[in-house]
Specification:
Number of helices: 12
Radius of gyration: 20 Å
Strand content: 25-35%
Number of strands: 19
Structural class: alpha/beta
Low-confidence stretches: none
Shape: globular
Helix content: 25-40%
Distance between the termini: 11 Å
């Protein structure tokens, strides 16, 4: 079958091959035919080594498709069922799951160290234990979440990561209050979803911050009340908050420098929400006095900061009701053979979200 493979960490191009086989099928496993997958910035971060991932590997974790077969012990799924791929399934039994913090379950991460593909030359890993830049994939049963028939595969794929992450940051983690002021730094797919989440919560002012003009224009269409380049944030802070700072600032880039900017633009007693996934050697610093004196809440948000299954259901409900726009987030559609063009479009900021159709 065909799949896009990264041979070594640090390479910026994928090779589309037709000699890849999905392996590992057995008890508790589900084999899927991937129909659509989104290109998320986390895939690029794994390729560059910012996020840890064994190689060679197949990127992709924001996917949807149909069940081909189920292993022994799998319940609630049958061949032909339509599903989205959950890259961070909850085991239900670990301490995090028992506390109700299923987004912190490590079971899914453990899958990343087990190859679920192979080629004539050896084993191939799937990113985050999945790997959806391929025609077929074998995953744990918890990774295959049924979706209603009225949800298109491309919409379900977005809900599988970026939409859930962004909406959840605003709704679950930060719990944006109605009438509040919000700034979102970084307006790719996750940042746009954060903007939509803040709008759903009733924020009065939502300032989108991004260096790419097309993304700023998109942010306005999705609910931002204004959009500025990074050098315009100070003026927006002065005009909107009288220099005090925003009630909520979301960092959706994954870099310490933008996290520091976000901190400095959060009002005293306000909330800084870290949504971007960054590198282990990139340290965010605050001094002990400002940490004590400013009383700013610093809240990391992992995969939307809540139960992902409930978050999926909420995203579908909001989409059906017309409260969020997911179709318009897909600015580019490509075939698997065009994956490297899609990567370039993401790196330059030309694409908001790219759907790879398989």
């Amino acid at each position: 079958m065909r799949a896009a493979v990264l041979h070594e960490i640090g390479q910026d191009k994928l090779e589309v091959l037709d000699d890849v086989e999905a392996v590992g099928f057995g008890p508790g496993k589900v084999k899927l035919r991937v129909r659509a997958t989104g290109l998320c910035h986390s895939d690029v971060s794994a390729m560059s080594g910012v996020l840890p991932q064994p190689a060679p590997f197949i990127p992709g974790h924001e996917g949807a498709g149909e069940v081909i077969d189920i292993g022994d012990g799998v319940t609630g799924l049958s061949a032909g069922d339509r599903v989205l791929v959950c890259w961070l399934p909850a085991c239900g039994t670990c301490p995090a799951c028992r506390r109700g913090q299923t987004q912190l379950c490590l079971a899914g991460f453990m899958n990343a160290g087990t190859p679920n593909f192979k080629r004539p030359g050896g084993d191939v890993f799937g990113f985050a234990g999945t790997g959806t830049f391929t025609e077929e994939v074998v995953v744990d049963t918890g990774c295959a979440v049924p979706i209603p028939d009225d949800v298109p595969f491309e919409i379900a794929a977005l809900i599988g990561c970026g939409v859930t992450t962004g909406l959840g940051a605003a709704i679950n983690t930060a719990q944006v209050e109605a009438g509040s002021s919000v700034a979102v730094i970084g307006c790719g797919g996750v940042g746009i979803s954060t903007i939509q989440g803040a709008r759903v919560q009733g924020a009065a002012q939502i300032v989108a911050v991004d260096p790419v003009e097309s993304r700023r224009e998109a942010a306005l269409r999705f609910g931002a009340t204004e959009a500025v380049a990074p050098d315009g944030l100070a003026d927006a802070k002065r005009r909107i908050t009288a220099g005090e700072g925003f009630d909520y600032v979301f960092e959706v880039v994954g870099k310490s420098v933008t996290a520091r900017t976000a901190y400095e633009n959060t009002r005293r007693g306000g909330t800084l929400c870290i949504v971007g996934a960054g590198a282990m050697d990139d340290n965010f610093q605050v001094n002990m006095f400002e940490l004590f004196f400013d009383e700013k809440r610093i809240l990391p948000s992992m995969y939307g900061g809540g139960d992902v299954l409930r978050s999926y259901e909420r995203a579908i409900a909001l989409w059906r009701a017309g409260r969020i726009d997911l179709e318009s987030m897909i600015t580019h559609r490509v075939q698997l053979a065009e994956i490297n063009d899609a990567l370039d479009q993401m790196r330059t900021g030309e694409a908001l979200r790219t759907c790879i159709e398989l």
